[in-house]
Design a protein that fits this description.
- The N terminus is likely disordered.
- The protein is globular.
- Among the domains are: about 70 residues; about 230 residues, no CATH class.
- It is an all-alpha fold.
Length: about 475
């Protein structure tokens, strides 16, 4: 009873401050862009995103403010719509956005589980050890780590790829902070560029693919622009690298565990399954990814049986300290638990919060101005620049929600710019933020900013290459 009284008071307050708000005949959508609720929603989102940007200094995980913002924004919207006896419109709006998130969530959860499984099986550590043992010079390592980051990120996510390559750079770059700084910049640029020509390489490309705007094979038309985006700044930074070779680093034994390469093959099979579901069966690719998770679960069962044989037990139970000596020990649910949950909840907050702003009417307003007045090319180039300051995920989700009327060429352009624009600043991508923590004191915001003009040259050259190749 008390809760109902509070609710009635809130609705009454809402009715008192809704004088200029009307429902169009035959259309139940309310335009709240000039209403106090709209302004309040914008303020809530701005405050939340300010906290996200300051994550490194506040030590407040980025999911927390956007989760709160998403809840508050939709509460405000619901108060207005309920006061106009339109509760079902809000319900449908939330369900639409939640379905968008649900498909993205399960797709990423499977991908993260496979990446965690490959990390646990020592696949990436073995690659790092191989590079360290080869005794390459500084300039050779600069190009090798960049090229590997470029070609691994289309399959693995750019964050994991960047962390692996940064570990190599730091292992061999001891005593050479200039090499570490430039090497990290190159890795960030390469990982972001590599992720732009694959649906699996970045969250933004994944969203575009799942939306059905660009087909799987069409992403590869961005390969040449992506190469240009990586090679142009790398070629210039090459001349600032120190000469010679790093001191030899001894690496003993193999880091690769039993079944590591099998899991790599199963991940590739999972990608093929997801693409086949989408292209041939016209089923959302997330269902193919979930089938791929079944591959890993069955293989985990096989490894468990091997582990039972290893310990000579029918239950597979053994002392916790004995796990390290068991080459077959593998628990798929541990890999699921190790997923980047903060990132997954961050996506939820962003999609629901931006969806709420779109429901209010702001995205339609922005779309009318940017894509109507400025034109698609200018707007799509600005999307990339904006993604260096604001995370590219809300920016791309806003574009997809606006769904401006533009050509296929322009959709490819915004996919490219949103993917590579984050390289302009170290805070512009997850890879850059992570490497600032991993190479603390050597790779910093200002060390990256020093090379921003060169990276911007690559950004512009990649757009020119897109017009040249795909125009």
């Amino acid at each position: 009873m008390k809760n109902r009284s509070i609710a009635l008071v809130l609705v009454g307050v809402s009715l008192a401050v809704l004088p200029g708000l009307a429902v169009a005949a035959g259309d139940t959508a309310l335009n709240l862009t000039t209403h106090w609720v709209g302004y309040a929603a914008l303020a809530v989102f701005a405050i939340a995103y300010s906290l996200v940007i300051g994550e490194e200094y506040l030590h407040l995980r980025k999911s927390k403010p956007v989760l709160a913002a998403a809840g508050v924004i939709w509460i405000l919207i619901a108060l207005v719509y309920n006061s106009h006896d339109l509760p079902h419109e809000v319900e449908e709006g939330i369900r639409h956005n939640f379905l968008e998130y649900g498909e993205l969530f399960f797709f990423l959860l499977v991908a993260m589980t496979y990446i965690n499984a490959m990390i646990e099986r020592g696949v990436f550590e073995e690659l790092r050890n191989w590079l360290v043992k080869k005794g390459f010079g500084y300039r050779a390592l600069f190009w090798l780590t960049g090229i590997l980051a470029f070609f691994i990120s289309p399959v693995a996510d750019n964050l994991t790829t960047a962390l692996i390559m940064c570990a190599v750079v730091m292992a061999v770059g001891e005593g050479q902070p200039r090499f570490v700084a430039i090497g990290c910049i190159n890795i960030v640029v390469a990982a972001n560029a590599g992720g732009a020509f694959s649906p699996f390489g970045d969250i933004t490309t994944l969203m575009v693919w799942q939306k059905g705007i660009v087909e799987f094979q069409e992403f590869f038309s961005l390969f040449v622009p992506s190469v240009v985006n990586f090679v142009v700044p790398a070629a210039i930074m090459h001349f600032a690298l120190p000469g010679g070779k790093p001191k030899a680093v001894d690496v003993e034994g193999s880091a690769l565990k039993y079944g590591g390469l099998v899991i790599v093959g199963m991940f590739i099979a999972t990608i093929v399954t997801a693409v086949s579901f989408h292209n041939f069966l016209h089923i959302p690719p997330v269902y193919g990814m979930m089938l791929g998770l079944a591959y890993l679960k069955f293989y985990g069962f096989y490894l468990r049986r091997r582990s039972m044989s290893w310990y000579g037990t029918e239950t597979g139970e053994h002392p916790p300290e004995a796990v390290d000596g068991d080459p077959y020990h593998f628990d798929v649910f541990e890999k699921i638990a190790d997923a980047e949950w903060d990132t997954l909840f961050f996506f939820y907050g962003v999609i629901l919060a931006v969806g709420g702003l779109g429901f209010i009417g702001y995205l339609e307003m922005v779309s009318a101005y940017s894509y109507g007045e400025l034109g698609p090319t200018t707007s799509n180039v600005l999307v990339g620049i904006l993604s260096a300051i604001v995370d590219n995920i809300p920016v791309m989700f806003a574009v997809l929600t606006m769904n401006p009327d533009m050509s296929h060429f322009q959709w490819l352009l915004v996919t490219l710019t949103a993917g590579v624009g984050g390289s302009l600043l170290s805070i512009g991508s997850a890879a850059g933020v992570a490497l600032m923590g991993q190479a603390r004191g050597q790779y910093t915001f200002f060390s990256h900013l020093k090379w921003t003009p060169v990276i911007a040259l690559g950004y512009g050259a990649s757009i020119w290459a897109h017009f040249l190749v795909n125009g």
